[in-house]
Amino acid sequence: MKIHHPIQYGELQKTITINPKKQSSDSSITDKDNEKSNASCSSSSSSKQKSIMESMTYDKSSKRWVSLTNSVLGCLAKDMLPFYTCEKDGFKKMLKTFDSRYNLPGRKYFSAAIPKLYQSTHDQVQEEISEALFFAGTTDLWSSRTMEPYMSYTVHYVDKDWNLQSRHLQTVFFPDDHTGENLAHGLKDTLDSWGLKEENQVCLTTDNGSNIVKATQLNNWQRLQCFGHRLHLAVNSGLKDDRIDRAIRITKKVVSSFSYSYKKKRELEKKQIEAELPKHSLITACDTRWGSTQKMIERFLEQERAVQQVLSADRKSVSLIPNWQTIEILECVNSAISPLAEFTDALSGEKHVSVSMVMPVIALLNDDILSPKPEDVALTTEIKTRILKYMNEKYKDESSRALLNIATFLDPRFKNKFLTDEEKFDTMTKLKLEILEPLEPIVATEGENLEDSPAKKLCLGNLFKRRDRIQETNKDLTPGEIINSEIERYLALPNIDYNSEPLQWWKEHLIIFPKLSSVVKKFLCIPATSCASERLFSVSGQIVSCKRTCLKPDKVDQLVFLSKNLRLD
């Protein structure tokens, strides 16, 4: 400062140095006056120091500036904020309040920094998935607000710590015709670009589009139908009835009349208070989501009294009041499909095992949820029967059913509880063939993270002792007999609680079942639904908003990838 800023340096020295020799000759000056004078000097000193410090901004090569800029970049990428956010007055004022010495770069800087951030995150994700010997995938197609077609792909695997991981790999621009041949080629290109081998992909979970079905057949890939999509089609099949269609149309008209009228909303709130009903708004249904139709019917039945009172008070809306037959039909529909709502949520998660729950859920639908009850009216029974028939027919495919049976068998919550005698024999036979294949992870996983495994039922020392006894017993047995022995001991153990995590159970019993555990990661990583790809479309829709329609496809892919995979820790 002394060399390059002599004026500011001189002012700074004046504020720091206070002359103690200056005395007042007037004896009438009191101590109070001295205190005021000192306070005035101190205030002036602080304001000058603050002004000088604010004029000294961070150099763009300093660690502090780089750290703050990277934080802003991570915020924009992770939270899907437009680049012009950094040029808004409120955003700049906020950062200036946090640190007055920081100068925020403009939108062009952050836009140019995205590819570099994408590449570093890409390398990190690629290193993580390269450690997984087996993986499963989901894929789907989507069109943006500008009608540009994209194809997504997500990968799912069990990591070395026995945690289920999910990574979004691509939302690639797909301008070609969506034929089975083009999709097959595009999916192969995706795996090649990430260095993933086709033979290590256990399964691809998709919807039931004829083009994607053909693509998996051309690639000779194992395909699993999305449970959520199947359930949606099953519910639609169950609701195919002229009486139900009419009742739902009437309900939609009533809900629509409240959605576009503030007066009706206001009156509805008053009637809810008078009738002591919950202060809930009516729900609009979406034709592509059966759950929204169920929620609409459920909410309408809850608010029926208040809705009828509001409509009765308006002579223009009296014709919208549903009659008692319509109400009865809606009650039948809600009674039949409301128990199904929670299954979609339970099987659409990405952080817990879901594929092993498909067959138990099918069994639960047959034995309890959709089985006719004495109190059910005829229409409710018809709806349940049609839904159940559709679900049972669609899960008769031998290839998919064999895959689901193995996954269910390897889940310590279920094992062979939901398999028929014939399925038990076939499942164990196919499981033995899987284990007998020369797989690399058998040796690698035997001692995997043993020091970090929390032994909840047996301490680590006892596990080693048990393994030694098992190895001594198996010393003279053939590989097939060793597998049979492991399966028998596995089935002899009690099933764990339904709310427990199966992967953590396998982590704790890795030493005892080295052969069985070698294929657990292969089958329990499969997602039961393609919701992972569906969620990418929601993210993409927020990124390609009405104010960002000029984003190039490559930038869209990078931003979606960063939003799902970027780690801010």
UniProtKB/TrEMBL annotation:
Domain named HAT C-terminal dimerisation: residues: 486-566
The family database entries (SUPFAM superfamilies) matched by this protein are listed as: Hermes dimerisation domain (SSF140996), Ribonuclease H-like (SSF53098)
List the biased-composition ranges (Low complexity).
37-48
Its domain of life? Eukaryota
Name of the protein this chain belongs to:
HAT C-terminal dimerisation domain-containing protein
Q: Where is this region: Disordered?
A: 19-48
Q: Which organism is it from?
A: Patella caerulea
| InterPro entries documented for this protein | HATC_C_dom (IPR008906), RNaseH-like_sf (IPR012337), ZnF_BED_domain_contain (IPR052035)
Bias-annotated ranges (Polar residues): 19-28
Q: Which PANTHER family match?
A: ZINC FINGER BED DOMAIN-CONTAINING PROTEIN 1-LIKE (PTHR46481:SF9), ZINC FINGER BED DOMAIN-CONTAINING PROTEIN 4 (PTHR46481)
* Any one GO MF annotation of this record: protein dimerization activity
